[in-house]
Design goal:
- This protein is of the alpha/beta class.
- The protein folds into 2 domains: 2-298, Mur-like, catalytic domain (UDP-N-acetylmuramoyl-L-alanine:D-glutamate ligase, 3-Layer(aba) Sandwich); 306-442, Protein-Tyrosine Phosphatase, Chain A, CATH 3.90.190.
- Helix content is 42%, strand content 18%.
- The chain is built from 16 helices and 17 strands.
- The strands form 3 sheets. Strands 4-3-2-5-1-6-7-8 form an 8-stranded mixed beta sheet, with helices on both faces. The protein has a 6-stranded mixed beta sheet with strand order 12-13-17-14-15-16, with helices on both faces.
- Strand 15 (364-369), helix 14 (380-390) and strand 16 form a beta-alpha-beta unit.
- The chain is globular.
- The N and C termini lie far apart (54 Å).
Length: 453
C-alpha cells in the first residue's frame, strides 16, 4: 500500500505546486477560481453537500480551525477538517473527526479523480488536493466541514464554498509578493471570503486592516461580529499545561474554560472560535458550551508552541513571520522565563528574516542557522547576513540534523531550552528527528536491575 500511496503523492506533485516555487514565480502565479469550479462541477459539486465554517487570516487560522473542529466533534457531529500545509504526512491535510484520511482511501480518491483532472488544463497541486478533500467529505457524509484558506482568500482554491460562517483571524504581513505590500491590501484579499449575507467573525485587527474588512462586509451585507466589541475574553491564569479563560458576548453567552494550547495569542484564537461556534448554535447546530469546554480543553495542534519535553525544555513551533515570532517570544517569557534559548532557525527566502530575529533576540543564548530540504529555503549565506544585520551571534549547519543535534548537545550541557522555529519545513524535519531518537531510546535494552536483599 505504501508504494501505491507514494505513487499517488507523485501524481499530485506532478502538477504545479506553488508551495515549492520561489517568490518571484509565486508573484507570477495565475490564481483564479474557474479551474476549481469546473473540476468540482465535474465531480458533482461535493463542496455543496455539507455546511462549512471557512477560516482565513495570517496567523491563528489553523488553531481556530482545530479548536472549532474539536468542539464540533465533542457535540457528536461528524466533522471534516481541511488544513495546509502538512507537517509530516500529506494525509494530515484531510481529516475526519481528528483522523487523517487513510492512505488507502487517498489512493482510491486520486484514482477516482484522475479522469476529471485530465479534463481541466493547468490545475495545481493545491487545487486538486482541495477537490480531494471536498470529495472525501461528501463521500464520508460529514455533517460539517471546517475549511482553512491556503493563501489569501479571494482567489484561494477553497473560496468556492458558501459557508454558514466566515472567519478572519489576525492579519499581518506575509506573502506580500502576492497579497500586497500594505495591511489594507492584504486585508482586502483575506476579506474575499466574505459572502453575501453570511455571518462574519473577525479577530482584533490593526485599524488599517479592520477598515478594509468592515467596508467589504458592509458592501456584502454580512453580519459582523468583532472580538473586543461584541465578544470579549479574559485570561484568568496559565501554567505549563494550559490556561484558564472566560469568554462572553452581548447576547448572554458566557464560557469558562481551560485551554490546552499555550500562549496569550491562543486566548484570542479561542474567543474567535467560540464566537463562530455560538453563531453556528444560533443557526440550529446542536452545540453547547459544554461541548466548547470539552473541545477547547483537549485540543492539541502540532508545532503550535508544542512542548515535547519540559526538563530541559524542547519546543517545536511553526512561527514563520514577524508577528508570530512576537507571539512566540511572549509565550517563552511566560512559560520558560528562566531558560536561555538555543534556537534552531531556518526560513523561506521571501520572509523578513531580520524582523523575526529581532523579536526573539532578547531570549537567545545561541542561534543555530540551517536550511530545510525545500526549494524556497533561504541559503545559509543569506541567513548569516541577516543575523549579522541584527547583531546576533550564530553557528551555521548545512543540515537540520546537525543543527538540531548541536542544540540538544548544548541543552544537555547547560539546561538551556531548545526551540525550533522559523520554517514549517525546518520544524517538521526536527520533529521527525526527535521522534526517531525517542523511538531508539525507548527500544534500547535496559541495564539489568541489581537484586535487593
Amino acid at each position: 500500500m505504501e508504494h501505491a500511496y507514494q505513487r499517488a503523492l507523485d501524481y499530485l506533485y506532478s502538477f504545479v505546486d506553488y508551495s515549492l516555487k520561489h517568490a518571484s514565480e509565486l508573484a507570477q502565479a495565475d490564481f483564479n477560481l474557474e479551474r476549481m469550479e469546473r473540476l468540482l462541477h465535474l465531480l458533482g459539486d461535493p463542496h455543496r453537500a455539507y455546511p462549512v465554517l471557512h477560516v482565513a487570516g495570517t496567523k491563528g487560522k489553523g488553531s481556530v480551525c482545530a479548536l472549532s473542529a474539536a468542539a464540533l466533534r465533542a457535540a457528536g457531529l461528524r466533522v471534516g477538517l481541511y488544513t495546509s500545509p502538512h507537517l509530516l504526512d500529506y494525509a494530515e491535510r484531510i481529516q475526519i473527526n481528528g483522523q487523517p484520511v487513510p492512505h488507502a482511501d487517498l489512493v482510491e480518491l486520486v484514482e477516482r479523480i484522475k479522469p476529471f483532472v485530465a479534463q481541466v488544463p493547468f490545475l495545481t497541486t493545491f487545487e486538486i488536493t482541495t477537490a480531494l478533500a471536498f470529495l472525501y467529505f461528501a463521500l464520508q457524509k460529514v455533517e460539517i466541514a471546517v475549511i482553512e484558506v491556503g493563501l489569501g482568500g479571494r482567489l484561494d482554491a477553497t473560496n468556492v464554498v458558501w459557508p454558514h460562517v466566515s472567519v478572519i483571524t489576525p492579519i499581518s504581513y506575509d506573502h506580500t509578493q502576492v497579497l500586497g505590500n500594505t495591511l489594507a491590501q492584504i486585508a482586502r484579499e483575506k476579506a474575499g471570503i466574505i459572502k453575501e449575507g453570511r455571518p462574519l467573525i473577525v479577530a482584533r485587527q490593526e485599524a488599517e486592516a479592520m477598515e478594509a474588512i468592515r467596508r467589504i462586509a458592509e458592501e456584502r451585507r454580512a453580519p459582523l461580529t468583532l472580538i473586543g466589541r461584541d465578544v470579549f475574553v479574559e485570561r484568568r491564569s496559565f501554567d505549563r499545561k494550559g490556561q484558564h479563560l472566560a469568554i462572553w458576548d452581548r447576547h448572554g453567552h458566557r464560557l469558562e474554560t481551560r485551554l490546552a494550547l499555550l500562549g496569550p495569542h491562543q486566548v484570542e484564537n479561542a474567543a474567535v472560535a467560540a464566537a463562530a461556534l455560538w453563531e453556528l448554535q444560533a443557526q440550529g447546530f446542536p452545540i453547547s458550551d459544554t461541548h466548547l469546554r470539552q473541545g477547547f480543553s483537549t485540543v492539541r495542534w502540532p508545532a503550535r508552541f508544542e512542548v515535547a519535553r519540559f526538563d530541559p525544555p524542547l519546543i517545536f513551533d511553526a512561527a514563520h513571520n514577524q508577528a508570530s515570532f512576537r507571539f512566540l517570544a511572549q509565550t517563552l517569557a511566560e512559560i520558560f522565563p528562566q531558560h536561555p534559548v538555543s534556537l534552531v532557525f531556518g526560513a523561506s527566502e521571501d520572509k523578513d528574516i531580520p524582523a523575526m530575529l529581532r523579536e526573539i533576540r532578547p531570549r537567545l543564548k545561541k542561534l543555530l542557522l540551517t536550511r530545510a530540504h525545500h526549494p524556497r529555503a533561504a541559503s545559509l549565506e543569506h541567513l548569516q547576513a541577516c543575523a549579522q544585520q541584527v547583531g546576533v551571534a550564530f553557528e551555521s549547519y548545512p543540515t537540520v540534523e546537525q543543527a538540531f543535534g548541536r542544540a540538544l548537545e548544548l541543552s544537555a550541557q547547560d539546561g538551556s531550552a531548545v526551540l525550533v522555529a522559523g520554517s514549517m519545513f525546518v520544524t517538521a524535519e526536527a520533529m521527525e528527528l526527535w521522534s526517531a531518537l525517542a523511538d531508539r531510546l525507548s527500544s534500547a535494552p535496559r541495564p539489568p536491575q541489581a537484586e535487593r536483599g
